[in-house]
TrEMBL record:
Gene Ontology molecular function: NAD binding; oxidoreductase activity, acting on the CH-OH group of donors, NAD or NADP as acceptor
Protein name in UniProt: Phosphoglycerate dehydrogenase-like enzyme
Organism of origin: Halopolyspora algeriensis
Key word Oxidoreductase present: yes
Record lineage: Bacteria, Bacillati, Actinomycetota, Actinomycetes, Actinomycetes incertae sedis
CDD domains for the chain: 2-Hacid_dh_1
Length: 338
């Protein structure tokens, strides 16, 4: 496959507009007018991708949950850059892409603050028992209860990348004591203070009232929250997962909740999406379920397209786009997000 790097590309004056393939799920991204003026655009579904890729310079993965790129990879004869309309890239990366000189970027910055606000909302929902109030209201039942404070509670954020840092800032402002867990242990972090090694979760989770998962999915993080770790939670603690479903073992979580090893869980991501109707998680009163929406605040799709448009302008002028992903580790280069 004839792959040309960005460095090689800078040595040649761009005489023609690049060709961009947009991988979509049947719905085109909004606001593509400027991109269509800057580039030759081909729209393709998963089934059409292999026919659209030959000769293309750029792939815009709008259908960020797709795993179709690997199968279509032999057709990517001139590809130089893949941009993903999402924060995670675990569904995209495969060995041939990792070995290639094709740059990969993600949509860092679009989801950080919305996800941080969402996590704070989940913590407040648990502490103020808002989910129970809604259920009682549906039954027209008046039942007074006492609620919890969140100030002074201890939160462990597993994943110290940009989203994890935004969550840390939001929770710290609300009065929680925040600690991180990342790829390497360290002290004096500007956002977390102390960062524990993710490999040590078994030894530290029992110290926290809230454990928030926002790490990228890698071989090291897959299944990191299993029965052994869950057994060490405080009985009053809650688990929040806004990262990837496979960071935790769902069957182990169901058993741990049933056994009372922790008080509740809020899950925005799952091993299988949509969550199957037969999942026992649906019927557990101490579980909050949302359909992979924690970062999807109003205007988010337009923001994703605008970010790619900005990146494409840089590409058109021969510059490397920002938000480069370390293809071997699966997260933004320079960040310690696991």
């Amino acid at each position: 496959m004839a792959i040309v790097s960005f460095r090689q590309r800078k040595q040649v004056m761009i005489d023609t507009a690049p060709t961009v393939v947009v991988l979509h799920d049947g719905t085109h991204p909004p606001g593509m007018g400027e991109i269509e003026r800057l580039a030759h655009v081909r729209y393709a579904t998963e089934d059409e991708l292999a026919h659209a890729l030959p000769g293309a310079d750029v792939l815009f993965v709008w259908h960020f949950l797709s795993e179709a790129v690997a199968a279509a990879w032999p057709a990517a004869t001139h590809l130089r850059w893949i941009h993903v309309a999402g924060a995670g890239v675990d569904r995209l990366l495969f060995d041939e892409l990792r070995r290639s000189t094709v740059a990969v970027t993600n949509s860092r910055g679009v989801f950080d603050r919305p996800m941080a606000e969402y996590v704070l909302g989940l913590i407040l929902t648990f502490a103020k028992d808002l989910h129970t109030s809604l259920r009682l209201q549906d039954r027209k039942r008046w039942q007074h209860r006492e609620t919890e404070r969140i100030a002074g509670k201890a939160a462990l954020i597993v994943g110290t990348g940009p989203i994890g840092r935004a969550i840390a800032a939001q929770l710290s402002a609300a009065g929680l004591s925040v600690t991180g867990a990342g790829r390497t242990a360290r002290n004096g972090d500007p956002d977390f203070g102390t960062v524990h090694a993710s490999a040590d979760l078994l030894d530290i989770v029992g110290e926290f009232d809230y454990v928030i998962l926002v790490a990228p999915l890698t071989p090291q993080t897959t299944g990191m929250i299993d029965s052994a770790v869950l057994a060490q939670f405080k009985p009053t603690a809650r688990l929040i997962n806004v990262g990837r479903g496979r960071l935790l073992v769902e069957d182990d979580l169901v058993q741990a909740l049933t056994a009372g090893h922790l008080a509740g869980a809020a899950l925005d991501v799952f091993d299988t999406e949509p969550l199957p109707p037969h999942s026992p998680l649906w019927d557990m009163p101490n579980v909050l379920i949302s359909p992979h929406m924690s970062g999807d605040a109003t205007g988010w799709t337009e923001n994703l397209v605008q970010l790619f448009t900005t990146q494409l302008r840089e590409y058109f002028h021969g510059n490397e786009p920002a938000n480069a992903v370390d293809k071997h580790r699966g997260y933004v280069s320079g960040s310690d997000s696991t």
